[in-house]
Amino acid sequence: MIGRKRETKELNRLYESGRAELVAIYGRCRIGKTYLVDETFEGRITFKHAGLSLADEEPTGLLKAQLQHFYNSLILHGMEACEKPENWLDAFLLLEKFLQKIDNGSRQLIFLDELPWLDSPRSGFLRAFEGFWNTWGCHRKNLMVIVCGSANSWVLDKLINNHGGLYGRVTYEIKLSPFTLRECEEFYRSRNVQLSRYDITQSYMIFGGIPYYLGYMDKELSLAQNVDNLFFARNAVLKNEYDRLFESVFTNPEAIKSIVRLLYTRNAGFTRGEITERLGISDGGTLTKNLRALLASDFIESRVRPLPSDFALHIQGEWIPCGVWEGI
């Protein structure tokens, strides 16, 4: 596995901690969250389940499909057939019974992938998960639960920064970031893709250091040929990736994309006030939520904008120019 040495070390440390662990891993789509967990804990995962995409089912049938899928995962992992759950409280009760039945004292690792997708509208998932962890999971010293999600705003707002029953329950969080230039070079070398460091830098500005996209590079083609093949050919695999990416990660993709399109027009970026003025939107909680979602996904960055030079603080006999956090 290229890179991720710190994350792998931390995950293994938590696995050996001897206490109940609830670990949240988040990062933008295609960053390699599932791959990290699968590779780190190969052969050690007790139960694994991934939610169904919210975009692939009509809202009226989504809860039923999610529960059926969860039940099927339990069956595949060895649970005996029984009455299917009608709600998430019943589903987590089945999981508890299954884990108790196979418990031999060793570490039990539960991996719930794409957790935000399980929380479909009016499903009651979050309350059921809260009950599962607070009533049962956190008291079992041999239990480790890892949850992942590409909808970073959901992971942050509903889980890590939860102000309800899950407040302070996450024992460790990992934000997975894009590859560095060095890691991109290592990745290309592992795939026998021969690129100069100049071309690697160029590819970084195109693909953003996202492992999933780097994996499409054909070693028989130059960088320019690869880009043309991936984005501009008749059936280019990444031709619709921009829209597909936003629709799969954000609940309000058009509002999010309008912010990105605006920021693209100026290298220096825009302040929060300028964003509201240019887009004609209110400066309220929705904008804050959208900006935080973009920040958490590494789509944008926040910067410090210094105050005028005549603004300073008097510290230990000297006037020191100060800056303030402003903008996004």
Tell me about this structure.
The chain has three domains: 5-175, Rossmann fold (3-Layer(aba) Sandwich); 181-240, no CATH class; 242-301, Arc Repressor Mutant, subunit A. With 328 residues, the chain is an alpha/beta fold. It is built from 15 helices and nine strands. The chain is 47% helix and 12% strand. β7 (312-315) and β8 (318-321) form a beta hairpin. α3 (59-76) runs parallel beside α4 and α12 crosses α13 (253-264). It starts with a helix and ends with a strand. The chain has a five-stranded parallel β-sheet with strand order 2-3-4-1-5, with helices on both faces.
Attribute tags:
328 residues; 15 helices; 5-stranded parallel sheet; Arc Repressor Mutant, subunit A; 9 strands; alpha/beta; Rossmann fold; two-stranded antiparallel sheet; globular; disordered C terminus; 3 domains; single chain
Secondary-structure map:
Blueprint: H1 5-15, E1 21-26, H2 33-40, E2 47-50, H3 59-76, H4 88-102, E3 108-113, H5 115-118, H6 125-136, E4 143-149, H7 152-160, E5 172-175, H8 181-190, H9 197-207, H10 211-214, H11 223-232, H12 241-249, H13 253-264, H14 272-279, H15 285-296, E6 304-306, E7 312-315, E8 318-321, E9 323-325
Parallel strand pairs: 1-4, 1-5, 2-3, 3-4
Antiparallel strand pairs: 6-9, 7-8
Helix pairs in contact: 3-4, 4-6, 7-15, 12-13
